[in-house]
Amino acid sequence: MNAQNNLPAVRQPKKFRLTQEVIVYQEKGKAFTTSLIVADKFGKRHADVIRSIEKTECSEEFSQRNFALSEYTDSTGRILPMYNITRAGCMKLIMGLTGKEAVRWQEMFINAFNRMERLLRQPAINKADLQTAIARQKAIENRKNETECL
User: Fold this and answer.
1) What would you report as the CA-atom Rg of the chain, rounded to the nearest whole angstrom?
2) Contact yes or no for 9/84 (Cβ under 8 A)
3) What is the mean pLDDT of the chain?
4) Fewest Cβ atoms nearer than 10 Å: which of 22, 55, 127, 131?
5) What is the DSSP string of 22-75?
6) pLDDT band of 149, cuts 50, 70, 90
7) What is the per-residue DSSP string for 114-146?
8) Considering only CA atoms, which of 25, 117, 119 is closest in space to residue 72?
């Protein structure tokens, strides 16, 4: 199936920058990786990873949900295509790769998605709530100290 024909082009957010440490990131409460990261970590040419995504045999629904066509700006200023990939898409793409290094990176991607998804499930704490919680804790500690002094 040609995934590229089924997906809308989405420009990658300006804040996203590929670094050595990032293999999974979050956007709008969901965990993703990119075709750039997969290519880098598995030692593949990015063009080959894109070709693999576009030739992946899967339903149109699976393709649309798990491989979102996007773009990035390379070091020379060119705007080039890439894919944002969900956990399911990543697993479909990378699980066919073999070798000790591929297995090591497969495990790292699985662990990174697990960590990111755990973080995303944690309730968000805004600054006001945090300050209120700290103030309550201090009040409890002060009352405890006053009681001990009597």
Assistant:
1) 22
2) no
3) 79
4) 127
5) -S-EEETTEEEEEHHHHHHHHT--HHHHHHHHHH----HHHHHHHEEEEEEE-T
6) low
7) HHHHHHHHSPP--HHHHHHHHHHHHHHHHHHHH
8) 25
